[in-house]
Fold this sequence. Notes:
8-stranded antiparallel β-sheet; 2 domains; disordered N terminus
Amino acid sequence: MKKLFVVSLIMLGFSAQAQEEIKGGPVNVPSEGIIDGVFIQEHIPTKRMIPYESVREADAIWSRRVWESIDLREKINHTLYYPLDDISTSGVWTKNSSRWSLWTIIRTHVLNGDLTLFSPYNPVLRGFGGEDGDQLKYPIRPQPGLNFYTDSAFREAMVYYLAELGPEGTVPLIDEDPNSPNFGQNLIVTDPVTGAQSFVYDPPDTTWYVSKDIVQYRLKEDWFFDKERSVLDVRIIAIAPVKYSTEKDPNGRVQITGLEEMFWLYFPHCRFVFNNYFVYNDKNDAQWMSFDDLFWKRRFNAVAYKESNTYDRDIETYRIGVDALWESERIKNEIRNIEHDVWSF
């Protein structure tokens, strides 16, 4: 009996370590002794994540990989887009006190080092190809125990994924130190390796992306039929925020040139974070769900833009406009019919 008790304690210890969860859902408590409402909504910020059912390879008798896009302009998807946050020119980040948009949640936990960001391209070949999209091959993470605020290398890397760099200054800086022998002259730096000298300019302005800059979320997911449970099920594998890709015309006006995947996140890791943040319910303020619940219950609208196929091509390469929407619907109906046909005799 003692041996059984000791083994049980050891297993509980491993289980607790394996199921470490990230708490952090915002609860609006203005000050000590003050409750902003009749009660404190503590269920979502403190609840434990429900794990997926374990699925064996032998039990998955059919599967199909599908890529979908969630358009945040659609009303049903506004719960992912709002409330908007803002970052001032001085770097002050203003967020809602009781609920956040999905982008605010993602940005917060990427900066804190809780979520690992995967680059859609090889960081070493930035701007020279090496794009791999949703393959989750290039993790960008801080040093163990550090985050955006304490790891300078990680902070520099994040600028390429969470912000946009403006043009570098064009006017050389002046040495304003009255004790310097070069006071009043242009600042000059010398390369310690080559000995080459160059002027010093103002660093480029950094514009951090906020919720209003995110126009889509893309999902990579697997649909499968589990014969053990006799159900058609789905698992989201990865999620990516998408923004507009822009460039300036000869007159200096910004033009939208397309859509750009900013980075990818491994969704099973995201669940530990999404599980503790509120999703707004426009019918009942007492029954808010979590973002993990929203994705599990499929409380959003998405359009398939690719399915696994022989040519590894997107729908837009062979269908345009309304025809592409019909093709997306055909893919969804085909998946739904798989389960329907199983029970039709």
